[in-house]
Write a structure and sequence with these properties.
The structure holds two protein chains of two kinds.
Chain A lengths: L1 H5 L5 H13 L3 E6 L2 E6 L2 H33 L2
Antiparallel strand pairs in A: 1-2
Chain B lengths: L2 H5 L7 E7 L3 H9 L18 E6 L6 E6 L4 E11 L3 E6 L13 E9 L5 E8 L8 H9 L3 H14 L1
The chains are: A alpha+beta, B alpha+beta.
Amino acid sequence: MGEIAKGMHVSRPAVSQHLKILKAARLVTDRAEGTRRLYAIDRRGIAALRTWLEGFWGEALTAFKDAAERETAKERKP
Amino acid sequence: MTKQTMSGGTDANCVRKVVNVQAPPAVAWRVFTEKMGTWWPLATYKIGKANAVDAVIEPRVGGRWYERGDDGSTCNWGSVLSWEPTSRLVLSWDISADWQYDPTLKTEIEVRFIADGKGGTRVELEHRHLDRYGARRDEMRTIFDSTGDWGRLLESFARTAAA
């Protein structure tokens, strides 16, 4: 936390407040190491989004493939 | 976007999909852009109140991408960022966490149509800048975790993936 505050022109309590908000939004995770508190990017939120989109695009592209193949078969007919 | 990044390692902020289509690039392009309403799963993936009957991409840079309802209403999904028939299409997808159109939220979908040399087309899709969902990802997760329509869809995806 101290390292983050050092690089910014804002007070330490202000940085602490911002990190609290990011943590509540599950954008960062934190853990204590001795007297220090370490922050890391929380990847769980984006992972759920990716899982959902993987499924969505998989379904949509399969339907697209079928439609394109039907279309080309139709055009090949005399 | 370069070819290298398209095939590059995993990027948590994007989703990539490839599908091989037994149709030439010109047909694949046309079906994707002009006939999206014939294959897009409109019954489940739409944002308007009306029943969606078509999905439309206006064929030019800056064109709208929208759904049309059976009552004649339209709902924007995004816009055309690159229009390069019949090889490359980039769309913005401006659908928010609560499944509403939000023009300030710009995620990107790039689609490439590559001739496979055997009369078919390799279609590569990349949905990127997912980090732009930012703090709202948490709402997305709530939607995914719910036992409503989205939750059921997720379950069916999981079953299909596991099959």
